[in-house]
Amino acid sequence: xxxxxxxxxxxxxxxxxxxxxxxxxxxxxxxxxxxxxxxxxxxxxxxxxxxxxxxxxxxxxxxxxxxxxxxxxxxxxxxxxxxxxxxxxxxxxxxxxxxxxxxxxxxxxxxxxxxxxxxxxxxxxxxxxxxxxxxxxxxxxxxxxxxxxxxxxxxxxxxxxxxxxxxxxxxxxxxxxxxxxxxxxxxxxxxxxxxxxxxxxxxxxxxxxxxxxxxxxxxxxxxxxxxxxxxxxxxxxxxxxxxxxxxxxxxxxxxxxxxxxxxxxxxxxxxxxxxxxxxxxxxxxxxxxxxxxxxxxxxxxxxxxxxxxxxxxxxxxxxxxxxxxxxxxxxxxxxxxxxxxxxxxxxxxxxxxxxxxxxxxxxxxxxxxxxxxxxxxxxxxxxxxxxxxxxxxxxxxxxxxxxxxxxxxxxxxxxxxxxxxxxxxxxxxxxxxxxxxxxxxxxxxxxxxxxxxxxxxxxxxxxxxxxxxxxxxx
Length: 474
Prior knowledge:
Elements: H1 12-37, E1 39-48, H2 60-75, E2 78-84, H3 88-101, E3 107-113, E4 116-119, E5 122-125, H4 136-141, E6 143-144, H5 145-154, E7 159-165, H6 171-176, E8 192-196, H7 213-222, H8 229-243, E9 251-254, H9 304-309, H10 311-322, H11 327-339, H12 343-356, H13 361-374, H14 377-390, H15 395-408, H16 411-424, H17 429-441, H18 447-456, H19 460-466
Parallel strand pairs: 1-2, 1-3, 3-7, 7-8
Antiparallel strand pairs: 4-5, 5-6, 8-9
Keywords: TPR repeat
TPR repeats: 327-360, 395-428
Region (Disordered): 260-306
């Protein structure tokens, strides 16, 4: 063997040992590097559902935000499964894969961006092909967040994290109208951290940008080194509040007893003043809200081309063509037409339903609502009165009759109808907004009702403008 250092010689056996040692060292370094890139003890499922056939617009921010968050989580060492536009079957399979990767003692995180609905005090995350026409459909078609967190816990996750951007007003809720806006509180297992993009029972205006404010703030806070996960989410909440002038207040629930940081070991509380915490960029301010009398103009409705491309209407029309007496398909198509502001077509479908069953209180209520929207007020009033005679407990009919009376200038009757509806559903944004307008028009102060309605549904003024009702003096 040749000399290697100052004339010293090694045997062939020593050379082989040295070579093996070097190879092992290289492997150790390589595996250490992989461990920094992806830690199997940190598992994440990221879902961005943007294309719902029932929704008029694609939620571009949902897909983009999911991509950005998945990238950040991978940078932070998570093993990430990212999925866009999941059907119910695909979403079930993605959740099963996620559960299967959870190891005892691991950190498990789910992020969902899309549509969510609360029903029976539960929050349900909806796949893009959800078929929802009545409230019971929600639990059948959706995925309960509480059940997802429970399964994460049962599979052995030490820390459970849910980041939910689903507090949007969606077309499914409008179909059965008796709904509670926004998301419901979730009962979490121990050592859980849950953040909603806005408060319980509230919804946010659909973003017209390619990225949402909530995830923008979240990404900024998650990337700060050494900050605990709980503090990062608290900072996210504060950032959204500041950026929206307190109009959007995320909801945070924590039962964490373990320290955890997205970027590495969590820092313990400092002994010195908190001004040593990393500086946070000043959030962008949103434009101040427009004055009440600059209310949105009524929506002109879907165009003929949009109508021809609408897959839901096309499917229902096929069913009606095959069976003209299909009252369910007629009723459902009437609801979709009404949501699309195609009120005349909606009335025609409700006429057909009532021709088959004149005592269908739900169809009478819906025809009352659509007739009110197009100004056929006396016929609308007769429909609502008949619906309430058939079913005195039909809260939706009280809300619809409140709209009719409001448009007729009968503010006292409108206030009573809306108040009766609110007594049964205190978070009904439509009834609150209508009562606020009626109170103002009768000379009272309806500002509190109007403000609460807008906090529950930022689009409620636009919806009423579509009925020909604004906050401006009549």
